[in-house]
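Supplementary notes for students who missed Thursday's class. We covered one full example, reproduced here. Read the sequence, then the structure, then the short commentary at the end.
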Amino acid sequence: MDMSKVHVWIGINYDEDFDRYFELNNRNSDMDIDDPEYSVCQFCKDINERWYDEDLLCVYIPDEKRQVVDIDVILKELTISEETFVNIKKICVEKGVEKANMMFYYMDPICYLEHYPDVNDDDEEIYPDFVTKEGLRLFYSGEHFEGVIHNALFQKNQPSVDEFIAGLNYYRDYDSFLGIEK
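Structure (token representation):
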């Protein structure tokens, strides 16, 4: 059983304005999302949220020509358990979606702490049973996480939560520490 919720859209789309569907209200960075003037994107409306973390949204297009392929090809891009894979495929087939050229998916932001994988004699990582069963993936080792936090504290006396998160995201994307303005 998956411990988080995954939102999946899979189908055929040739619309060049596809990104507008996900456009967050970035006109005024000081505006609170609870402000009545805050414009909620259509994707947020569809998942019943006022905001989403853009780092958790993935769009998969099999190739630049948006060639239509069997849904199995696209669904294999998801990092989910076999049980969830089967359930999503079943829903697609019931809705008549057996081929597609695009998928976007968003996983609710739930994180787990687990032991670092062991490495066997063939240099293969052996993950704990829970990680394998749930189809989870490793974002940070404890040492990496701790290094990012220490780096932020070294650069600034009291970094904000947003600065810690920006540092973690930067490390994930660039395998390097983010510079923080004092």
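Commentary. The chain has a mean pLDDT of 81. The beta strands are 6-11, 57-60, 69-70, 99-100, 102-107, 118-119, 125-126. If anything here is unclear, bring it to office hours.
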